[in-house]
Write a structure and sequence with these properties.
This protein is α/β, with parallel strands linked by helices and about 300 residues long. The protein is built from eight helices and twelve strands. Bound molecules: zinc ion (ZN). The site of zinc ion has 7 residues, from loops.
């Protein structure tokens, strides 16, 4: 690992780029709206444009990318993607960006990249065993073990969304099945639960805002979601034995107040010192982690 690195986060609405020093300090930024509805080629052109703006500043730099979807880490291609990026499944991100940029590009899933970022310079800086949970529209996790990303057998480890949880039996998960954690503890889950309780259609973000304004139905929905998340995370701590659990994503701030006391109460004594921490890198976590990924030797 040497030199500066560029990291690009290809998200459903925004493409975020950072230029970082070898120690992870962000010294350049670029971003653009992701043209998700215009298809994969337009999304790739936008990502390449963001990277080029940073390359102009850096002169020489490695490039890493974090993208929504399940990514094959060996080929940098998208195995599976939700409809936040239509036509994204099957896209050979690494090949396509290498062609556009004329240099090697490393690609991983966005939540994995966020885990790398937070364990590098964020909430879990310096730790080598970290569980990062991303609670946004959906729910995912990235796992750092022995200082390295644990991707599992097919690059899909950390699919926390599909953990069965009590109380979710009648709720449909993003995967189409019932009873999974994402159906409760995610932006989508908050919106669904609120609609069931009140008949009103609002976003997960609006549920959190209403709870803050004193809406009892919204507060109840948020409390149930936070409890389910806190309980599940305490169980995962027993399985994975991390040094810390970091919660990132747009729904993190709304879920943590209810999740934390349940998490603390559920932890067994052996893990009583494993903190549940809010992420620190904000919406740059994926890009920072992607930059770090791009700096790694291509032998992993
Ligand atoms: Zn599911």
């Amino acid at each position: 690992m040497s030199g500066t690195g560029i990291g690009v986060d290809i998200g459903g609405t925004t493409t975020v780029g950072v230029l970082v020093t070898p120690s992870g300090e962000v010294v350049g930024r670029a971003r653009a709206e992701t043209p998700a509805r215009r298809g994969a080629a337009a999304v790739l052109d936008t990502a390449a444009g963001v990277a080029r703006r940073l390359l102009d500043q850096a002169g020489q730099a490695t490039v890493g990318v974090g993208s929504a979807g399940t990514i094959d880490p060996a080929t940098g291609a998208v195995r599976y993607a939700t409809d936040s990026l239509p036509g994204w499944a099957g896209t050979r991100i690494a090949d396509e960006l290498e062609r556009r940029l004329g240099r090697p590009v490393r690609v991983d899933n966005d939540v994995n990249a966020a885990a790398i970022g937070e364990a590098w310079t964020g909430a879990a800086a310096g730790l080598t065993h970290v569980l990062l949970v991303a609670a946004g529209t959906g729910l995912g996790a990235g796992l750092i073990r022995d200082g390295r990303l644990d991707r599992g057998a097919r690059g899909a480890a950390g699919a926390l969304a599909h953990l069965p949880v009590p109380g979710a039996e009648r709720l449909r998960c993003g995967c189409g099945r019932y009873g999974h954690l994402e159906a409760v503890a995610s932006g989508t889950g908050l919106a669904t639960a609120y609609k069931l309780a009140t008949g009103e259609t609002v976003t997960g973000r609006q549920v959190a805002a209403r709870a803050a304004d004193g809406d009892p139905a919204a507060a109840e929905v948020l409390a149930r979601a936070g409890e389910a998340l806190g309980r599940a995370l305490a169980g995962l701590v027993a399985l994975l034995d991390p040094q810390a659990v970091v919660v990132a994503g747009g729904a993190a701030a709304a879920l943590l107040p209810a999740a934390t006391p349940v998490y603390v109460a559920e932890l067994l004594p052996a893990w009583a010192d494993v903190p549940l921490l809010p992420a620190q890198l904000g919406d740059e976590a994926v890009a920072v982690g992607a930059a770090r990924l791009g700096m790694e030797e291509p032998t992993q």
